[in-house]
Amino acid sequence: MTAAATKGWGLIRASWTGTAVFSATSATAALAPADGVDAVAFGVAVVMFGAGCVAFALAYSRVLSRSRTELIGVAQVYLLTAGVAPGPVRRHLLGALTVQVVVAIAAAAMRPYSSLAAGTLAPMFGLGLCGMWAARYGTFPPRAGPPRRPGPRQSGP
Fold it and tell me: What separation, in Å, do the N-terminal and C-terminal C-alpha atoms of the chain show?
C-alpha cells in the first residue's frame, strides 16, 4: 500500500476483525443452532451495531465541522465515493461492509424467526468505520467562497 493508503490502517483492521468475528459467530449459529451459540451471535451483532452507531455519529460530527471549508456529500463520507479515499482503502472498507451485509442476510434467511435476525443491524459497524475513515483522512474539494458561519438565516431583499 502507498503512504496515503496506510492512513487509518487501524480502522481498516478493526473493520475486518469485526467482520471476521461477526461472520464466524453468525455462521456457527446458523449452521449449528444452540442457545449458547445464538446468544453469542446476538451479542456480537448488538455490540457491532452499537459501535457502528457511535462511529457514525462521531464521523458526522467531524464532517460537520469540515464542511465549513470543504464541499462534502453524505455518499462521499459513508460510501467513499468520488475519490474521497485511495483505491486500496475503499476496497478494504467497502469489502468488509459488503461481507457484513451478505453474512447478515444469509444468516437471517437461514433462521428468519430467531435472534440471528438482529445480525441485519451489524453492518452499521462497517458503515460507521467508512465514515470515520472519510472524516479523518478523506480528501474533499474546497468550498467556493468564504467559510460558512453558523447563524440565523436572513430572508427578504
Answer: 54
User: Which residues have C-beta within 8 Å of that of residue 34, sequence separation ≥ 6?
Assistant: none
Q: Show pLDDT as tens, one digit a residue, over the chain (157 residues).
A: 555 557 899 999 999 999 999 999 999 999 988 878 999 999 999 999 999 999 999 999 999 999 999 999 999 999 999 789 999 999 999 999 999 999 999 999 999 888 999 999 999 999 999 999 999 999 999 988 766 666 676 665 5
Q: CB neighbours of 140 closer than 8 A, spacing ≥ 6? A: 66, 70, 71, 72, 76, 84
* CA–CA separation, 108 and 74 (whole Å): 28
pTM over 0.90: no
- DSSP 3-state percent helix, strand, coil across the chain (nearest 5): 70, 0, 30
Nine-digit cell at 94? 467497502
Q: Which three cell numbers stand for residue 122?
A: 451489524
Residue of 90, 125, 94, 129 whose CA lies nearest to 11: 129
